[in-house]
Amino acid sequence: YQERSWDATLWNRCESLLDWESFQALPADVSCADCEGTGTEWIEISLAGATHRVTFPQGARLEGAEALQDLLQRLRGSFKVPPPELESLRYFEHTSGMDGLSRKDVTINPSNTYWHFSDPSGASKPRSGSRRTQARDWQSLTETVRWPAILEAALPWENRCWDCEGYGWLEINVHNQSYQIPLDAPGIQDLLVEVLSQVSVFEPPPLPTKITRVVYTEDLGRCLGYCAKQQQWDGETLVLTARSPDTSFPAIDIKQEVPEDVWQLLTELLSSQPWDDWGSEIGCPGCTDRGKGILQVWEGDAVHEVSFDLPAPPDTLVEVMDILSQWGEIADWGGNDDSSSELYTLRACSQSHACWLSPALEPKVCQMALLHQGFGGRCLVCA
């Protein structure tokens, strides 16, 4: 709404152009066959206690009042309607397929910005905060609001959905009115880009992807003893298996618990490995007679796998291999006081050959012509 004063000359000009009798003779509603769909306007004149209003389509001419009509239209055109003044903007989105703080609710006004990020499942603690709105940020928002697009895309209040994954909207508040605009509405792309750039400042960092499983396999090819050994780490549980290609040794399947700090250290070391740089193979795995190692890591939705020649893992995997060697040692498993033999691993040789030791033999000579590391540390197969 706007008021303005005008001088007597303009008023006198209107009076001189008014033919009151001709104007009163016009019907209250003027039709125009060529003006359909153009909208309507009206002129109302009060004189000597009488009032007459004529409504007509835009573009129609009022017979007998054309000069007055032209003057009033020019006068109307001199009133420049200012664009609505933005009072606040609210951004809401429930991101689909995302764990953690997937519901985002941010309100920006000229003075302050408020944000609240929450997890609909309740598994993560919500994050909330506020800060002063920077003047340049507010100006950038107001400059990218396109009111024709806002008015055309506005949704009824009841069409909003708080709990629908993949749903989001902007709420534009102006002159005590709210307009809800879906994020995929045409004509608001520039505004949405600006809003998202400001929202990103307050977004908590995404939850790091977790390593949930690690499998390490040593394939020694054809050898004496346990030529295929595997470690399966699932959280703090470790399953160790060993197989002999000619089945001359019994299959080994052992499950044991691993301390939390060991699993945490292992996953931390693995999470920083250059998987993309390595590719699926490093060097020529298995090309030597020492076999190959195969490392598989489940991290989030990705599965990393790399093979390398034994005993030469990449430099960045040295600490990882130390942990795997320590916890994957097949030593004295399944032995008990009633057994006639005990299983050991020879850590002194590069192949980690295993053998059955007979307690009846001194000094515990291996039945497969191997010597346990505790009794000489020499592997006759390797020698």
Short description:
This protein has 9 helices and 17 strands. The chain has 383 residues and is α+β, with helices and mostly antiparallel strands. It is rod-shaped, with a radius of gyration of 41 Å.
How is this structure best described in words?
The protein contains nine helices and 17 strands. A seven-stranded mixed sheet has the order 12-11-10-9-14-15-13, with helices on one face. Strand 5 and strand 6 form a beta hairpin. The longest helix has 12 residues. The chain starts with 7 loop residues before the first helix and ends in a 26-residue tail after the last strand. The C terminus is likely disordered.
What's the SSE blueprint?
Blueprint: H1 8-17, H2 20-25, E1 40-47, E2 50-57, H3 66-77, E3 88-94, E4 103-108, E5 112-118, E6 127-132, H4 135-143, H5 147-153, E7 167-174, E8 177-182, H6 189-199, E9 211-219, E10 228-234, E11 237-243, E12 252-257, H7 260-271, H8 275-278, E13 281-282, E14 292-299, E15 302-309, H9 318-327, E16 342-345, E17 354-357
Parallel strand pairs: 13-15
Antiparallel strand pairs: 1-2, 3-4, 3-7, 4-5, 5-6, 7-8, 9-10, 9-14, 10-11, 11-12, 14-15, 16-17
Which key features would you list for this structure?
alpha+beta; six-stranded antiparallel beta sheet; 383 residues; single chain
